């Protein structure tokens, strides 16, 4: 299934042209003519990349970009700004607000294709990197739990053994305590969700707190 | 042709897809007159921001057809809106642009990209 590209452009001629170009270069265009409900459109249409015009009525491209970046970072959802202006100030402003790239209209097919493919590749690489970190975190968690459970388990077995030999009831309290520790750890395993947490990954945190 | 359309660039831009070209010409013809009306309205209201936006939109639409002289006229009006200066002479500039857009529409309707 080809990537779904959201085109946010108020001018009908340019919107139609971009939509046609996107189809020609092998992607699926989704067109809107203003940015009022852009977040809903992104979610509803499973958008993977956005082509965002700058000058639009009421909610301009910069405002829309800020809304997008509050929810999605540039790897999750690349945004390529499109404008008929080639003003470096506009370009710098867009990049500072979190745009992934900038294209000047009229967009040439080859350039558009190259820029979109680059952003989609970066997105894919980022996902693969997150997956790898997730797997590394799970491995670390398994090792940690292994140790945490083995320790009280060894104590429990040891206590049982002593109790059998000497009928030392004080060992029963120790046994109970060890078993409670194991029970708590098992509960934690059930509660921990292996969701991706971007802030933890960006800080390269690989451990889960027990 | 009355406007300075660069036919080679036009044909390249559309990949000589005459069907797509005709669709866009139709869309352009359907909207530019309304855009001119909006320019006049926003000039009357001294709404510089909206005036700039409409002129920018006309410029952007025209840029798909590589008629540089028409594009420049729209750009001049855009710059005036951006600088918050809409003197009375703007009225004749808007009329001038309107006339050029009529000519552009006429020229575009005579073009068959498959023959370039």
Overall strand count of chain B: 0
Rounded Rg of chain B: 15 Å
Amount of helix of chain B: over 70%
Could you give the order of the helices and strands of chain B? HHHHH
What's the domain count of chain B?
A: 1
The gross shape of chain A turns out to be rod-shaped
Q: In what range is the share of β-strand residues of chain B? A: under 5%
Give the biggest beta sheet of chain A: 5 strands, parallel
What is the strand arrangement across the widest sheet of chain A?
Answer: 2-1-3-4-5
Structural class of chain B: mainly alpha
Structural class of chain A: alpha/beta
CATH superfamily of the largest domain in chain A: Response regulator
CATH architectural arrangement of the largest domain in chain A? 3-Layer(aba) Sandwich
The outline of chain B comes out as: elongated
Give your account of this protein's structure.
The complex is a heterodimer of chains A (210) and B (116). Chain A is an alpha/beta fold. Chain A is 60% helix and 11% strand. Chain A folds into 2 domains: 4-107, Rossmann fold (3-Layer(aba) Sandwich), CATH 3.40.50.2300; 133-202. In chain A, helix 5 packs antiparallel against helix 6 (170-191). The radius of gyration of chain A is 27 Å and the shape is rod-shaped. Helix content of chain B is 73%, strand content 0%. Chain B has 5 helices and no strands. The longest helix of chain B has 27 residues, at 18-44. Chain B is elongated and about 45 Å long. At the A-B interface, helix 1 of A face helix 2 and helix 3 of B.
What key phrases describe this protein's structure?
heterodimer, A: 210 residues, alpha/beta, Rossmann fold, 2 domains, 5-stranded parallel β-sheet, 7 helices, 11% strand, rod-shaped, disordered C terminus, B: 116 residues, mainly alpha, 5 helices, 73% helix, 0% strand
What is the topological layout?
The complex is a heterodimer of chains A (210) and B (116).
Chain A: E1 4-8, H1 12-24, E2 28-32, H2 38-44, E3 49-53, H3 61-71, E4 79-83, H4 88-96, E5 101-104, H5 109-166, H6 170-191, H7 198-202
Parallel strand pairs in A: 1-2, 1-3, 3-4, 4-5
Helix pairs in contact in A: 5-6
Chain B: H1 7-13, H2 18-44, H3 48-63, H4 68-82, H5 89-108
Helix pairs in contact in B: 2-3, 2-5, 3-4, 4-5
């Amino acid at each position: 299934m080809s990537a779904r590209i959201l085109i946010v452009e108020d001018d009908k001629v340019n919107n139609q042209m971009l939509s046609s170009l996107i189809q020609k270069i092998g992607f699926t265009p989704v067109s809107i003519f203003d940015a009022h409900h852009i977040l809903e459109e992104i979610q509803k249409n499973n958008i993977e990349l956005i082509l965002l015009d700058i000058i639009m009525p009421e909610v301009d491209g910069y405002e829309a970009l800020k809304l997008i970046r509050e929810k999605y970072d540039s790897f999750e959802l690349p945004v390529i700004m499109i404008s008929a202006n080639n003003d470096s100030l506009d370009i710098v402003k867009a990049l500072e607000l979190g745009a992934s790239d900038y294209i000047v209209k009229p967009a040439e097919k080859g350039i558009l294709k190259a820029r979109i493919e680059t952003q989609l590749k970066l997105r894919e690489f980022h996902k693969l990197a997150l997956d790898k970190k997730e797997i590394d975190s799970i491995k670390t968690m398994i090792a940690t739990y292994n140790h945490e459970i083995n320790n009280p388990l060894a104590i429990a077995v040891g206590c049982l053994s002593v109790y059998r030999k000497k009928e030392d009831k004080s060992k029963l309290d120790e046994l109970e305590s060890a078993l409670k520790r194991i029970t708590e750890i098992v509960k934690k395993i059930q509660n921990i969700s292996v969701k991706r947490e971007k802030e933890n990954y960006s800080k390269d945190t690989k451990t889960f707190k027990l | 042709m009355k406007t300075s359309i660069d036919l080679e660039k036009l044909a390249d831009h559309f990949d000589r897809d005459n069907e797509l070209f005709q669709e866009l010409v139709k869309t352009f013809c359907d909207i530019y007159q309304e855009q001119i009306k909006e320019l006049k309205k926003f000039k009357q209201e001294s709404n510089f921001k909206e005036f700039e936006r409409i002129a920018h939109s006309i410029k952007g639409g025209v840029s798909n057809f590589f008629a540089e002289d028409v594009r420049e006229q729209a750009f001049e009006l855009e710059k005036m809106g951006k600088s918050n200066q809409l003197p009375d002479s703007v009225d004749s500039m808007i009329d001038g642009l309107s006339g050029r857009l009529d000519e552009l529409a006429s020229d575009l309707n005579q073009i068959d990209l498959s023959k370039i």
